[in-house]
Amino acid sequence: MADKHIDEATGVETVGHEWDGIEELNNPLPRWWLWSFYACIAFAVGYAVAYPALPGLHSATPGVLGWSSRGALAKDLKEAEAARAQVRAAIAATPIEQLGNDPKLLRAAIEGGAAAFKQNCVQCHGAGAAGSKGYPNLNDDDWLWGGDIATIHQTLEHGVRYPGDEETRMSQMPAFGRDGILTPAQVQDVVSHVRVISGQEKPSASSTRGAQIFADNCAACHGESGEGNRAVGAPRLSDHIWLYGGDRATLTQTVTNARQGVMPAWGQRLDPVTVKMLAAYVHSRGGGEALPEQAAAEPSDNQQPAP
Q1: Residues 191 and 253 sit within 8 Å (Cβ to Cβ)
Q2: Where is the protein found, in the record's own terms (predicted)?
């Protein structure tokens, strides 16, 4: 280390370091800086005493105030659970058909159902409930068994073709081609007829033959004009909404081998209140319908209410 000396220009002693003729002056630290530094040290010591701070073998020092982030979180969760318990109790005590009579309670049920949907249903129906091939779109007004909130609740609670639940939704279309009920040519004729009534093809000799085959084998469930039947979960075939697809190849596969999609019986996996909230959320997506008796009581767009 170079010898210290007094800088002639400032009269301040140097620290003895020199680089390229540049030397560092040994000026004292500003007093405000020193006091700030000492205050930080005092604060750190006080914090280490008051709060968990010093790591040990198994845990940190507890601190004399007894506070911890885990304890604070547990307290907040307990308070939130207590507040939520009141709402859940109110939902549990309200018949599903009457949830709409209390807008505030219905809104709470929808919000709770949205959270449950994200945890349990998005894997199949998508984050926006738009569905995908083989999984229904829950935003439209096309329903297999019905779209009022009570019917949706029944479907969610008992599932679709779910083994072990005696009340599960059950519809079973025959595998017309695989089981030899129809020949491959007849299957194609039926497909032609379905594509005609759904507006995808123009009438043809094939669709004419298919109309009679449809009447003999399919109309009992799907209706004479393909309007569907919610009593047995038979889809409407005269629109442009398809669960698996309405192109010729997909329809041929459906008629030949049938479809046997399954949805879990959520009543066996989730508590009753959560299932009820899920029903409220699905019903709110845009395709939900009023109960039959409510729909009958409300005037239509072109019907004036009775005086």
Answers
A1: no
A2: Cell inner membrane
